[in-house]
Amino acid sequence: MQAIDSRVAQILARHLPTFKTVVRQAERCSVVSETCHITVVCLRKNRLGSVFSYCPIFNTSSCPMRPHKTIQLLQQKLHSALRRIEELDPPAQLGGWFFLGAIPDSYGGQDRWVPACLKGTTRKALVPVLFYYLDHYAPLSIPLICDVYDDKISISLVQPLTIQVFPGLNKAKSRVLTVYDYFNTVTNEFIRADTPEQDFPLPLRQIPLYRASLIEDTDLAGSYARGERPIVPLCSMKVGFVDLPFLWPVGLQNPCRYLRANWKVVHRPHPMGQVAVRPFEGEDGCIVITVEEGVEEH
Question: Domain residues for 42?
Answer without folding.
Answer: 6-115
